[in-house]
Amino acid sequence: MRKFVITGAAVSLLALTACSEQVDYEEATVDAADYVEAEAAADAMEAASEEAAAGSAIPSLAELPVSLPKLAYLYDYRWRMPADEIGPLQRRHANLCEQQGPASCQILGMSKSGEEADEVYGELQMAVASRQARAFGALLEDEAEDAGAEQVSAEIGSQELSKQMVDTEARIAARTELRDRLMAVLKTRRGTVEELVEAERSVARVNEEIDQARSWLKEMEGRVAYSRVTVRYETGVPVTNDFLAPVAGAVGSLGTVLGYLVAFLILAGAVALPIGGLVWAGRSINRRFERAAVEG
């Protein structure tokens, strides 16, 4: 009977061991299958990302919180041409600006100085929408080339206004919050008469600062939205390697040299004549005294 019990217990223990090993094997099989599926999904995602990167040379940055810089662009063009051609080309450029419409181009200033036979200088200042400034510059160049003008220089500059605009916006927000607090004090009427009067004065000062800061912000936003385009016109002879150029320059400056020489002689005479007169008068008086002493 005891042997039967021991034999049954051994059979039961073997059965439990076999079941446990089967469960462990099934769990290990499931874990291995999950790992294989996860690795396959990761490989598929990596392949998809590589295909997307291959299709686009520049990765997409739409999901990144990027703050674009606020730039105020400055365009400067300079042309050289005969004196009698400056006025017509300047008017053609001004008409070209007006044709774009006030929302795209506005004339800020226009000037011309000098004689037709002498050196003439002209300048045209415009405010052009920043998105159209480069294309408008190309139109200006086409008009100048049609007029036979020679382009001397073309420059594009910019001024960073991001920090100034952010600081101004922060200042407006802080002053607005301060004004709201002061207005709350005035509404509750808590405090002495002097405190309430001082609060009203503070509200007036804060409102003035807010208006000034908003004006600065609007001005900077306008500079970012509209680029400053300056066109300069001038006459002049380009520098060449002509042998007679130095000789012509020397002959041309001869009149200036003679003028300076005559001016120097006039100044010297104006100083020397009074001094010479005093010396002559002194000697004359001295001679008279000597004659009187000899005769006496």
Automatic annotation (TrEMBL):
The chain crosses the membrane at residues 257-281. Residues 70-281 form the DUF4349 domain. Residues 1-20 form the signal peptide. Keywords: Membrane, Signal, Transmembrane, Transmembrane helix. This is DUF4349 domain-containing protein.
